[in-house]
Specification:
92 residues, single chain, mainly beta
């Protein structure tokens, strides 16, 4: 379940515990100029698990999915898909 942390996100990408996870986001923040699209998002999705991403217009749903797909690089935090950190994959 996604959660937004009210604490100041760390500047460095934290170590991810990706064991038995299809997707793991840890402290993900995305900024577009002065606008925070996502702030401190943590999410863990197990293989085969189904989730619904629900929110109002402008809540960051598309940005979150773009981060998971590797189309948008987080300003802060880390993302792993099937145990591989996206930032470490070739072509990123």
């Amino acid at each position: 379940m996604p959660s937004a942390s009210s604490a100041e996100p760390s500047r460095a990408a934290p170590h991810l515990d990706t064991s038995e996870r299809a997707v793991t986001l840890t402290g993900v923040t995305v900024r577009h100029g002065r606008v925070d699209a996502l702030v401190g998002v943590d999410l863990a999705v197990a293989p085969g698990e189904r989730i619904a991403l629900v929110g109002s217009s402008g809540a960051g749903k598309t940005t979150l999915l773009s981060v998971v797909a590797g189309l948008v690089r987080p300003t802060e935090g880390a993302v792993a898909v099937l145990g591989s950190e996206l930032a470490s994959l070739a072509g990123r």
